[in-house]
Structure formats: C-alpha cells, structure tokens
Amino acid sequence: MSYGNHSDGYGQPPGNGGHGSPGGYDPSGGYGSPGGYGAKGYGGYDPYRGYGAPPPTRGNNGMAVAALIMGIAGLFLCGLTSIVGVVLGHISMGQIRRTGEEGRSMAIAGLVLSYFGVLCWLGVALLIWLIGVGTFAVSA
To answer: Are the beta carbons of 39 and 79 closer than 8 angstroms?
Structure first.
C-alpha cells in the first residue's frame, strides 16, 4: 500500500490526483461548519458579507445625553438648565433624524423632563407672584 491510498480513510481523497475537486471549489464546505453557519464576528465568516469585523455601531447622540442631563438638573436648579435642555433636545432630535444615530429615547426623555421643569418653575413663580399680589392688595 502506498502513501495516499490507505483503505482506512486516511490520506488524500480519491479522484483528480488528490488535488481537490475540479474548479477549485470544495462542495464539502472546507474548514467551516456545515451549511455555512459559522461563527460571526471578528475574524468570522459571514456568508452574506464575507470575512471581517462587523460594521461599527452608531453611538448615542451627545446632545441627546446632554438634554437628558439638563432636564434632570432643571428639576432641582430652578428650571435654568431646563431651557437649555429644551433647546438641546430639539437640536438632537433633528440630528438623530438626519444622521440615524442612537439616542432618540434619551432626547425625548430630556425634552419631557425639560418641559416639565420649565412648567413647574413657571408655576412656582406664578404662585409666588399671586401670593405677593394678594398680600399687597390686602395691605393696601
């Protein structure tokens, strides 16, 4: 028995002189898992995109994060940062719509908290004004 002609299944496959299948294509799938469902990711093979890293994910919009922070801070800081939060929230919503970035829910939450902060502090200012007008009217 010569090298490559073992009957126990080891050695070169029969046919085509042991140089692979005709045309350079191996129908058995080669080194990957059967059916082409191999590990995807860094260095993995994706049958639809080929080899390589997955596409980068889009990060959160920075203005949406800032709008959320300003909305939360505006509830405690007399609504001053809430006005900034409203502006940043509307700008970030436009940027997210245009660029497709993540963070739409943060921008909406920032807008809701900012508008709530503005309304609360306007209500407090109105209440203080009404008390002041009431005491002035009583004393006059």
So the answer is: no
User: Do 106 and 60 meet the contact criterion of CB atoms below 8 Å apart?
Assistant: yes
Report the alpha-carbon distance of residue 102 to residue 52 in Å, rounded: 24
68 burial (CB, 10 Å; 0-12 / 13-18 / 19+) is buried
Q: Enter the tokens of residue 77.
A: 């800081």
CB–CB of 75/68 below 8 Å? no
Q: Write the single-letter amino acid at 123.
A: G
**Total H helices, total E strands in the chain:** 3, 2
Task: State pLDDT tens for residues 69-84.
Answer: 999 999 888 788 999 9
Nearest alpha-carbon partner for 46 in 34, 36, 55: 36
Whose structure tokens read 């306007």?
Answer: 122
Q: Are 70 and 91 in contact (CB under 8 A)?
A: no
Cα–Cα–Cα angle for 62, 77, 82, rounded to 5 degrees: 45
Instruction: Supply the pTM of this predicted model.
Output: 0.58
Segment holding 84, helix H or strand E = helix 80-99
Q: How many CB atoms lie within 10 A of CB 92?
A: 27
